[in-house]
Write a structure and sequence with these properties.
Family: Belongs to the iron/ascorbate-dependent oxidoreductase family.
CATH topology: Jelly Rolls
Strand content: 15-25%
Number of helices: 9
Strand order of the largest sheet: 1-2-10-7-12-5-4-3
Shape: globular
Radius of gyration: 20 Å
Number of strands: 14
Organism: Rhynchospora breviuscula
InterPro entries: DIOX_N (IPR026992), IPNS-like_FE2OG_OXY (IPR044861), IPNS-like_sf (IPR027443), Oxoglu/Fe-dep_dioxygenase_dom (IPR005123)
CATH superfamily: B-lactam Antibiotic, Isopenicillin N Synthase, Chain
Number of domains: 1
Largest sheet: 8 strands, mixed
Protein name: Fe2OG dioxygenase domain-containing protein
GO molecular function: dioxygenase activity; metal ion binding
CATH architecture: Sandwich
Length: about 350
């Protein structure tokens, strides 16, 4: 205990440029100390409520011809759950599976390609690393990440990994279209014109965050992704069949089992802020498992990639009244993100810092 130097061990992991997958490939059978969650913070068993009709997030077919019903279902899910699964989205399942396969191939691929991209430089459009908040978070998560900023300033094709370049470009285009569709439905759910959220540029930034969770030798003392809410306006998540995602709802943790062909869509902190709490940004986490590897691709929609932007975001004026006063102060998105990143995933919502 007396000789444990967490900072030194974090730097040692970073220096390998191979992350968690490098530990597994080297034959690691016990967790390095930096990954061990203290007993008081571990997830008790059973970790979540069993899935049932009354405690599973809504699944919505957004291709239904009954547009009014779809908008009502989106409103209910966004205000009560903060999460929904969507089908009928128009993205071919073949593309979804190809994306998961491409991400897996990158993470299990050549050291040279990953080392070339390994970085913590905020301005880089494409980078690979182990835990974006490695030096801020209390617990090192058992996962590696390929980060690709696809909009508004997309990377050159040469910046993207050879192993998944074409798939990334095709997938990002289709998920951008889905994001625009969802923002239109969310606008209407707030009683606004369908273009409202895109008109205020909620769709201008697109990041693909491609996570890889290798099988964990001691999952009972580790965490895949710490409890957190998303900083974005909107997140669209593709997950494989392994599972492990849980959301906090009604004071309980609830499993989100994979639904074949579905995307998970969740409200981010910024959308809760501008909707003045009409929509909920819900805390969630990912368990470490000895199965897998688990692969997921989160698409975050935000706007903090324009450092010079002076657009302030606060509660939408059309939603306010004498009986519905603003709950948050206005903020630049880059200031919100800077605060979010300064804290790491610490289990506390960053949005409360901006509440009036």
């Amino acid at each position: 205990m007396a000789t444990y130097d967490r900072t030194t061990e974090l730097h040692a992991l970073d220096a390998t440029k191979t992350g968690v997958q490098g530990l597994v490939a080297s034959g690691c059978t016990t967790l390095p100390r930096i990954f061990i969650v203290p007993p008081e913070n571990r997830i008790p068993l059973p970790p979540a409520l069993p899935t049932s009709a009354c405690n599973s997030i809504p699944v919505i077919d957004i291709s239904s011809s009954d547009k009014k019903q779809v908008v009502e279902e989106v409103l209910r899910a966004s205000s009560e759950w903060g999460f929904l699964q969507v089908v009928g989205h128009g993205v071919p399942q073949s593309v979804m599976y190809s994306m998961l396969d491409a991400v897996r191939a990158f993470h299990e691929g050549k050291y040279e390609e990953k080392a070339r991209l390994y970085s913590r430089e905020p301005a880089k459009a494409v980078k690979y690393h182990c835990n974006f908040d490695l030096y801020q978070s209390k617990f090192t998560n058992w996962r590696d990440t390929l980060y690709c900023r696809m909009a508004p300033d997309p990377p050159t094709p040469e910046e993207l990994p050879d192993s998944c370049r074409d798939t990334l470009l095709m997938y990002s285009k289709l998920v951008m279209e889905l994001g625009n569709t969802m923002l239109g439905l969310l606008s209407e759910a707030l009683g606004l014109d369908s273009s409202y959220l895109t008109d205020i540029e909620c769709n201008q930034g697109q990041i693909l965050v491609c996570h890889y969770y290798p099988p964990c030798p001691e999952p009972e003392v580790a965490i895949g992704t710490s409890q957190h809410s998303d900083s974005s306006f909107l997140t669209i998540l593709l997950q494989d069949c392994i599972g492990g995602l849980q959301i906090h709802h009604g004071g309980e943790w609830i499993d989100v089992p994979p639904v074949p062909g579905a995307f998970i869509v969740n409200i981010g902190d910024l959308l809760q802020l501008i909707s003045n709490d009409r929509f909920k940004s819900v805390e969630h986490r990912v368990l470490a498992k000895n199965a897998g590897p688990r692969v997921s691709v989160a698409c975050f929609f935000s706007t903090h990639f324009h450092p010079a932007s002076t657009r302030l975001y606060g509660p939408i004026k059309e939603l306010l009244s004498d009986r519905n006063a603003p709950l948050y102060r206005q903020t630049l998105v880059r200031d919100f993100i800077a605060y979010y990143y300064s804290r790491g995933l610490d289990g506390k919502s960053a949005i409360e810092h901006f509440r009036m």
